[in-house]
Structures are given as C-alpha cells and as structure tokens.
TrEMBL record:
<dbReference type="InterPro" id="IPR012368">
    <property type="entry name" value="OxRdtase_Mopterin-bd_su_IorB"/>
</dbReference>
<dbReference type="InterPro" id="IPR008274">
    <property type="entry name" value="AldOxase/xan_DH_MoCoBD1"/>
</dbReference>
<dbReference type="InterPro" id="IPR046867">
    <property type="entry name" value="AldOxase/xan_DH_MoCoBD2"/>
</dbReference>
<dbReference type="Pfam" id="PF20256">
    <property type="entry name" value="MoCoBD_2"/>
</dbReference>
<feature type="domain" description="Aldehyde oxidase/xanthine dehydrogenase a/b hammerhead">
    <location>
        <begin position="209"/>
        <end position="295"/>
    </location>
</feature>
<protein>
    <submittedName>
        <fullName>Molybdopterin-dependent oxidoreductase</fullName>
    </submittedName>
</protein>
<dbReference type="InterPro" id="IPR037165">
    <property type="entry name" value="AldOxase/xan_DH_Mopterin-bd_sf"/>
</dbReference>
<dbReference type="InterPro" id="IPR000674">
    <property type="entry name" value="Ald_Oxase/Xan_DH_a/b"/>
</dbReference>
<dbReference type="InterPro" id="IPR052516">
    <property type="entry name" value="N-heterocyclic_Hydroxylase"/>
</dbReference>
<dbReference type="Pfam" id="PF02738">
    <property type="entry name" value="MoCoBD_1"/>
</dbReference>
C-alpha cells in the first residue's frame, strides 16, 4: 500500500497559521486507498475537522481521529483508536475521537456486517505507522542524528544516544515536509503493547455520567418536535383526518399529512408538530384518522408459513449453489431425512427508539441523529428532495443500539419532509409502539432440509428456504436470482468435504417490510442448518462434535478442541443435556456449547453457555467477549422469548409487554474464549448470535429426546 502524494509545504504553513493543525493524514478515499489531503481538503479541514476520516496531529501534539462509522455499542469508538495508539506510539487516552459527517470521500460509511475493523485495520495500521516514521524523520533532521538512533514513545520522539526528546507537536510542521515513506515496516504481533490487550473503553465514562450525546439528546436552536401517526397496515393511505382535538393540546402548532419512502413504496401518515415532545405525542393520540387500506393484502402469520411450507414442498426454487448431484442421490436413496425448520419475524427493538433531527433550508438539508449509514441517507434524500448530494449534510450521534434498523432511510426522510413543510428544524421521535408496529423486520423463513447418510457419512444435502429477500429494495435481480445469503452461516469447509450439496431459494413476497437484523440470514440459516446436522449425527449414531469434525478443516478443529476443553464435553453425565452449533458469519467462526437440565417444576433450565470465537487478528478481547455475550442474550430472546406476528395486516406486538425481553435472571452464565492465530481479522459484533438457537435446541434434544424445529418456543413447556 503506497501513499498517493506528499503534502505541500504551503498547505501545512496555512494550517499552522489558521488552525493549529500540523499533520493531517487521510485514512480513506472512495477507492479505499490511503490518501493524503489536498490543499482544498486541508482548507476545508480548517473549517470543519469532520470533513473526512483523518488522523490529525496539531502543533500542541493533540491527536484527533475522525470516525467515519457509527458507534452503536459495538465498541469501534474504542477499538479503532486502540489500533492508532499502537503504531503511532501514543497513549490511547490522549486520542480525541469525533464523528465524521456523511461524505463520499470516505467510501463506504455503512456500519454493518461487522466490518469496521475487519475491512480497514490494515489501512489503519499502515497510515499511523507512516505518520510515526515521518515524525521520527523530522526529529532526526532536527538533531542531525541517524534515523535508526531515534524512536517514538508516548507521543514523543526520543534520541537514544543522548536522551533528547521532542513531542509530536514540536515536529509536525517539519514532518509534513518529509518524504512519505513507501514501505513502512509494521510491528510484529508479538511486539504489540496496546492491540490485543484488554482496556477500559474510552466512551464508558461519558455514557455513564450522562455527558454523551445520543440522538434523543441532540438539540439545535429553534427546534420543534414532531410525532407521526402512521398507518398500522404499513401500505395504506390517509383517507381523511380530523385534527380538531389535536390542535387543542397546549403546545401543538400544526397538523398535516405526509408521506415518506419505505423501500420502493411510500408510507403515509399525519404529522403533529409542537414545541415539545410530550405535546406532540399527546396531539398524536388525539388525532382521528380514517385509513384507505385497499389495494394490498391484509396478511396473517398463519398464511405466511402455510405458503412458505407449500413453496419448499412443491418448488425447486432458484438455485444458489450446487455441487455434485444431490437430487439423484435423494431420489434413489432407500432412506433419507426430510424435515422443515421455521424461524419467526423479529423486531430490532433497539433500546433507543428511532429519532431524527432535520433542518430543511431551501437548497440544502441538514440531518442529526443515530444513523448507521450516512452515505445512504445522502443518496436517498438527494433523490427524494431533489437536492445536490453535497447539500445533504448528515451528522452522526451515538446510537443506543441499531442492529441494522438504523441503516435505513425512512426516518431521516420523514424528518426532512416535516422540516420542509414547517420551514424550521424539527426532531421526530418514534414511540416504542411506532418502532414495533412499523418494521422493517427480520423476515420469518421456512426451510426444508433433506439429507442422505451412507455408512454413517453424509452423502448428500439439499436445502431450500422460502422467506422475504432483504435485497429486494436495492437490486432488481432479487426477484430472479437466488438470495445471495442462502448459505450464509454454513461453514465453508463443508463444501470441500461433502460432495453433493445444494442450496436454493423459493421466492416469497408479501406487503411486510423486511431488512437486516443482527447477523442477517445467519441468524435464521444457522438454526436450520446446524440443527439438521445434529439430526444427521444422531441418525449416524455419532457424537455431534466428532461428526462435524469429519467435515471441517484444521482451523475449525482447533475451535472444536477448545469447545471440548472448556465445556467438559467429553465428561458429560447422564441427566445433563449438551448441545453444540458452529456457524460462520462475516469472516468469523463461532461455536457454542449449551448445557441444560430439567427444572423440578417442569421445563428446562439453561445451566451455562460456552462460546469460542475465531475472529483472526483482533484488537480488544474484552470488547469481543462483551459482544459475544450480548449476542447470546439477543439470540436467546429470539429463540425462546419473542416474535412478531400479524393479524389482518397489523402487527400484534406493540411494546415489551407483548414482546418480552430476557430478564437478568433468565441469562445463564456465559464464558467466552477467543482463539489466537495469524489469520485476517473477522467481524465481532454479530457472529456470536447464530449458534445460540441451534446449540440450545440441540441440548434440549440431548436431554429430552424432543426435537424443536420451530422458533420461538417456551423453555417452561419443553
């Protein structure tokens, strides 16, 4: 990786005199190459440091990192500075982190797919090591010393023979004139002092003392507040509304009809604007709206699964991946296993409900809020409002959870439409009921799994899935090509060692908005595929872990070894149920072992969960463990506590009373172990979720002999 060009002396003198910034090093360009600021970009940086994802060192030695991605609890706000601190040789707590604005120069700004570290860590390392070497070179010239006699430590360059020391602020202007090294030597992993070590998150203090700014905390001058009554059937239109009572609520200013883009359709609603949130919500309750719900189907949950079951029973679907001839083997086999699995619709239910501030000002609009995809918001609002993309300004705040939902563009669009109507800045706040009933949701999916064993070995596997395709709103081919995530979660080595395998999708469409949910399709695929492998191992009369080992590679064997070691797998006793599942998600492999036992008063108790993650190169083991623990809790909720159902086209669950979350006394002890190796970095925020449901239901089968093929289920009624 090479640097594009050097920074001119003129640029740095300009920065020194105007902004006190001595060295600006770009991390990203649209083509993902390392980038040095141009004169124009530096000039813009003087006005707003948030222009792009830069590492900035000022003449006082202050280090600023401009984060181009969202922080929604996953820990990148800490992990990325931890990488910078390592190669730049500065104290982690001395790095100041701010969020960048939406800008195409960042490249992809979507916080999703557990991608922030795994996609960018090599670039982070390279650019900060380059900065360090330029600072060392500047010090060597200043002291007329050999470069090799100087080294960086704790924000200073030190001359080893004489003990001379200069902090980075003293060197940045001279460093800016140094030739940019082409090939910077990075540290060996064994030499890391910061990376790979646990450390307390730098955002913990502000989050616990209340000083951090989440979307709901953000305020701007002259801001009004809005709540929106939206059609409960998702696609209906406003036939008429009566705002008489709403306008009587003290503080309510205006009531009017709006529409906002939801994928490729428009959702209509009635906005109530007030001078405070409470008044807006009370005005919304006082509205009388008549909806026009004609022209689309009013779906019921039972109908959804009936159609999906018919699909996978009678249709071959669109082939995603096929090797060998599993159809021939299945057709001629004397015995085969042929079963169905089903997973439910799920809401994202982030603890911070949706909210967004917009200020429409003629030829531009500015957005503030908890946003996972500022670049997508720019694209969407530019098109919908007829504005230049650069005139759609998107500012990120901290997110109180996202899980994919806050990577969507409907709520910023809605806020922008309201702001344009009232010609003032406005914050639109969604209630929990709004969030629950409007979606989009993780799609419910039905799977048909077929397999043939010969002499205890897998001879053929055939999987068909039928559920909504989350790509339908982005890609026209989504209706004619198999879902690209059809095999997501299924370990790649299986394809190397099972000769006859096929995956297909039977398309399924209904008027319910669906989109990504934490770990996307791996969360549903993993339940079906890993449960089915357990069924095959039982049919073969083999230990479930040993059975999987037969088809996996050496790297996965090490993960299995660790699972066996920490869980005491080989020392299992009678009246103890042990289940295992291993899935792959966003370049990381995670295995769970779940232990269950019978409760005296009936039902099943989860005694413990052991999780082993192989995410390759990693930054902070504490953050990894926290993310896997959180994934286990979220996976448990989806498996045994809640689901979204529909009746007459309406969502039945409106709040936590009908969509219960696991409580603290429902959570078993969880132990997380991280595999050390030299592989490339994988994701962390999502891969810990998919194995939980199948490991749990496999454990219940081991204990009770009851095979659970439909989620959610009640632990107290097993």
């Amino acid at each position: 990786m090479s640097l594009d060009k050097e920074i001119s002396r003129k640029s740095f003198l300009k920065i020194a005199s105007l902004g006190g910034i001595g060295l600006c090093l770009g991390l990203f360009a649209a083509d993902s190459k390392t980038h040095i600021l141009t004169d124009e970009e530096i000039e813009a940086a003087i006005q707003s440091v948030e222009l792009n994802a830069w590492v900035i060192i000022d003449t006082n030695g202050k280090i600023t990192f401009v984060d181009h991605r969202a922080e929604m609890g996953q820990g990148s706000f800490h992990s990325v500075p931890q990488i910078l601190a390592e190669e730049l040789e500065v104290n982690l707590n001395d790095i100041h982190v701010i969020f960048g604005k939406g800008d195409k120069k960042y490249g992809n700004q979507v916080t999703g797919g557990s991608s922030t570290i795994r996609s960018n860590y090599k670039n982070f390392l390279k650019i900060t090591a380059t900065a360090r070497e330029m600072l060392i070179a500047a010090a060597a010239v200043k002291w007329s010393a050999d470069h090799s006699d100087c080294y960086a430590e704790n924000g200073h360059v030190i001359h080893r023979p004489s003990g001379k020391k200069a902090h980075y602020g003293e060197l940045v202007l001279a460093a800016s004139k140094m030739p940019v090294p082409k090939d910077v030597k990075l540290k060996k992993r064994s030499d890391y002092k910061v990376i790979g070590k646990p450390s307390r998150r730098i955002d913990t203090k502000s989050k616990t003392n209340g000083s951090v700014t989440f979307g709901l905390d953000k305020k701007i001058p002259g801001m009004l507040y809005a709540a929106v009554e939206r059609n409960p059937r998702l696609r209906g239109k406003v036939k008429s509304f009566d705002a008489t009572e709403a306008l009587k609520v003290p503080g309510v200013k205006k009531v009017f009809k709006i529409k906002m883009l939801v994928f490729k359709t428009y959702r209509e609603g009635v906005a109530v604007v007030a001078d405070n949130t409470y008044a807006a919500l009370q005005g919304k309750k006082a509205l009388k709206v008549v909806w026009d719900d004609t022209g689309f189907e009013h779906i019921n949950t039972a109908d959804i699964y009936k159609r999906q079951e018919e699909n996978v029973r009678t249709k071959e679907g669109l082939s995603y991946k096929k090797q060998g001839d599993p159809d021939k083997i299945l057709a001629t086999a004397g015995k085969k296993i042929d079963v169905m699995y089903q997973t439910p619709y799920q809401s994202h239910y982030a603890m911070e409900p949706l909210n967004c501030i917009a200020h429409h000002q003629g030829d531009k609009v500015e957005i503030w809020g908890p946003i996972q995809a500022p670049d997508w918001v720019q694209d969407a609002l530019s098109e919908e409002l007829g504005l230049k993309r650069e005139n759609v300004i998107v500012n990120m705040t901290f997110l109180g959870g996202g899980f994919g939902r806050k990577a969507f563009m409907d709520y910023p669009h809605e806020a922008a439409v309201i702001s344009k109507e009232i010609n003032a800045p406005v914050q639109v706040v969604w209630t929990r009921e709004d969030d629950s009933t409007q979606g989009p949701y993780r799609p419910g999916i039905t799977y048909r799994c077929e397999g043939v064993l010969i002499n205890g070995k897998i001879e053929a596997l055939k999987f068909r899935m039928s559920g909504q395709n989350n790509d339908h709103w982005r890609e026209e081919s989504a209706k004619t090509q198999a879902n690209r995530s059809t095999s997501e979660g299924f370990l790649e080595p299986y394809f190397e060692n099972i000769k006859n395998v096929s995956f297909a999708e039977v398309p399924f469409e209904i008027p319910i908005p669906s989109m990504w949910w934490r770990s996307v399709y791996a969360s549903t695929n993993g339940f079906a595929y890993e449960s089915f492998l357990d069924e095959l191992s039982h049919e073969a009369g083999k230990d479930p872990l040993a059975f999987r080992r037969e088809y996996l590679d050496e790297r996965t064997h090490k993960l299995i070894d660790k699972l066996e070691e920490v869980s005491g797998w080989r020392k299992r006793k009678k009246n103890e149920g042990f289940g295992v599942a291993i899935t792959e998600c966003f370049a990381s492999t995670v295995g769970h072992v779940v232990k269950v036992s019978k409760k005296p008063d009936g039902g099943v108790k989860i005694d413990k969960v052991w999780a082993v993650i192989d995410c390759g190169w990693y930054v902070n083991p504490d953050i990894i463990k926290a993310q896997v623990e959180g994934s286990v809790v979220m996976g448990l909720g989806a498996a045994a506590f809640h689901e979204i159902t529909f009746k007459d086209g309406k969502t039945e669950q409106k709040n936590f009373y009908a969509y219960p979350m696991p409580r603290i006394n429902d959570i078993p002890p969880i132990e997380v172990f991280v595999i050390d190796n030299d592989e490339d970095a994988g994701g962390v925020g999502e891969p810990g979720l998919p194995p939980l449901a199948p490991a749990l239901t496999n454990a219940i089968f081991d204990l009770t002999g009851k095979r659970i093929r439909k989620l959610p289920f009640d632990l107290n009624k097993v």
